[in-house]
Every structure is written in structure tokens, then in C-alpha cells.
Design a protein that fits this description.
The structure is a single chain. With 291 residues, this protein is an alpha+beta fold. It has eight helices and twelve strands. Strands 1, 2, 3, 4, 5, 6, 7 and 12 form an eight-stranded mixed sheet that branches. It has a four-stranded antiparallel sheet with strand order 9-10-8-11. The protein is globular, with a radius of gyration of 18 Å. The N terminus is likely disordered.
């Protein structure tokens, strides 16, 4: 159903959060969502979410538009509710698909939290805002480690679940490489995180691949270990498997975006174009920030 786009006054506030692709992850869910999340490694892209927020005194509840349409946006709404009881108008432009392994929910929630903080003069710290977005992600099961990765940018290594100071995040030094990616569809993050057998498989493979990555923390090894992880947890569709093999045959490196039916690569040399529309984005070395 089409919905009219809400126009924002000039005194609105905007923020950016990069997209985040998890290559390796280890599920760590506890009763307290602050201490829950995932360990692992991921990569941030300059494509992501730009969110504009304006105080809304004439509406009764927070309204979220994504790419011009009113959206349920459960994670973003949860993050706003953790920060304030006042309703706000939220408009997010996403340059990555939802539910395809690009951390869209996390990018939307964290960029919204940053903009809400300015719009309502909440005077909260970055970590407090990230905590709200992280808790919202964990509670809605739309992701576990994306918010943590988005806070720092680059290629993150999450050594302890959660947001700093609870979570421990390191980074792999790298240049602003161009990442090519292609999306074949969605995978339900919630359904995977609710499957106990699949969680055991993920954690066993994730622990091994993170250990191997830490032995040689380079961008090439990040892709190699991510691809091995994806094969071991057996969530690859035939399209994803074929696309990865095509990139490797062309001299590039590729893996599956977690959790999504998508492939991301470096130096695909045109191989991905055989499978559909290819998008490109540089690695974002900046974490989420105000605009």
C-alpha cells in the first residue's frame, strides 16, 4: 500500500550509519540483552542508512518512513522507545536491501538514535545511543553484532559480545577497497537464531574460523575464513555457491553475507554480473556519525 512521504522542516537532524556484512559470527545470547550479541568479524560499507529526525508535537506516536514509505521498522521503533517517550518523525534512506545480510536494521536503528539525540537534545553519549540500538536489535532478533561493528567501521573483529565497554572490538587494518555485491533474496535472521541445532553448528564453525582469522588478521584471510564458515554452516543457496565459485575462478575472493542470500567480493573481475545486478561500495572506515 502506498503511503505519503512526510516532509521534514528545515530544523531536522540527520545521521549516517554504514551497512555491515558479518562474515563470521558466534551467537552469545544471555538474559540481559546488554551482555548478549555475537563475537565474530564483519565489514562496513559506505552504502548504508541516512536518517533524518524531527520532533513531532502534533502526532501521538513515532512514525518511520523507509525509502519513502511508512514502515513497521520494529528495531528502529524499539530503539526510539528506549531513548524517549516523545514521538518523532523518522525518515531513513537505505542503500542496501533489508533482510539480505547487510545490517540494514542496525544501520537504521543507530542512525536514528544519533539523530534523535540531537533532535530532542537528549545529551547522551555515543555508547549510550549504540546500547539502545543494540538492545533493540537483540530483542527483535534482527541481528546480534551489526550495531557493534557499525560503531567503529572498517573490518571489525568482535572479541566479546555486546557494545563497548561490555563488548570488545578490534579492527583489521585495510585500505578503502571496493566491495562488489549481489543479492538473491532474504534469509530470516529470526528463524536461524531460533533454531538450536543451527546455532550449535554456527558456534562450532564460528569459533574455529575466528581463531584462524586472529592468527592472520588480513582482509584476504577475512574473506577466506568467512567463506569457509559459510560452507560449514550450510546456508548457501545454489546461486550463492555458484557466484562465489565464479568469482574465485576469475581471480577474486568472495563469501556469503550473514545472514542473507547474498554474495560480497573483492576483484570479482565481472564474474558477478553473470548472476544479476551488481552493486559496488567502498569499505567505510568511519563508523556511524552525525551529518
Amino acid at each position: 500500500m502506498e503511503n505519503k512521504l512526510i516532509s521534514f522542516p528545515q530544523n531536522s537532524f540527520s545521521a549516517f550509519a554504514p551497512a555491515h556484512i558479518s562474515g563470521i559470527f558466534i551467537i552469545d545470547i544471555k538474559k540481559d540483552p546488554i551482555h548478549s550479541g555475537s563475537m565474530g568479524a564483519g565489514i562496513c560499507l559506505e552504502d548504508g542508512a541516512v536518517t533524518t529526525v524531527h520532533p513531532a508535537e502534533k502526532i501521538k506516536k513515532t512514525t518511520v518512513n523507509i525509502n519513502g514509505k511508512v514502515n513497521r521498522a520494529a528495531t528502529t521503533l524499539s530503539a526510539v522507545e528506549l531513548l524517549t517517550k516523545k514521538p518523532v518523525l523518522v525518515e531513513t534512506t537505505l542503500r542496501v536491501p533489508i533482510g539480505a545480510g547487510f545490517g540494514a536494521s542496525a544501520a537504521g536503528a543507530l542512525s536514528t538514535a544519533l539523530a534523535v539525540n540531537e533532535a530532542l537534545s537528549l545529551n547522551m553519549t555515543f555508547n549510550d545511543l549504540a546500547k539502545a540500538a543494540h538492545i533493540a536489535e537483540v530483542k527483535n532478533r534482527t541481528g546480534l553484532g551489526d550495531v557493534a561493528g557499525i560503531t567503529c567501521g572498517g573490518i571489525d573483529i568482535r572479541k566479546h559480545a555486546g557494545i563497548p565497554p561490555v563488548g570488545i572490538i578490534d579492527r583489521i587494518p585495510c585500505s578503502d577497497e571496493i566491495i562488489s555485491w549481489i543479492c538473491f533474496g532474504e534469509i530470516s535472521t529470526k528463524s536461524v537464531l531460533s533454531d538450536d541445532i543451527k546455532k550449535k553448528s554456527i558456534n562450532k564453525a564460528g569459533s574455529l574460523r575466528l581463531k584462524e582469522l586472529l592468527k592472520k588478521p588480513t582482509i584476504d584471510n577475512f574473506f577466506l575464513q568467512s567463506c569457509a564458515f559459510a560452507k560449514e554452516i550450510d546456508l548457501m543457496s545454489p546461486q550463492v555457491r555458484d557466484a562465489i565459485e565464479a568469482v574465485e575462478a576469475a581471480g577474486g575472493i568472495a563469501s556469503q553475507a550473514m545472514l542473507g542470500n547474498s554474495v560480497f567480493a573483492i576483484n570479482d573481475n565481472g564474474a558477478l554480473s553473470e548472476f544479476g545486478e551488481v552493486k559496488k561500495s567502498r569499505i567505510s572506515h568511519a563508523g556511524a556519525h552525525l551529518l
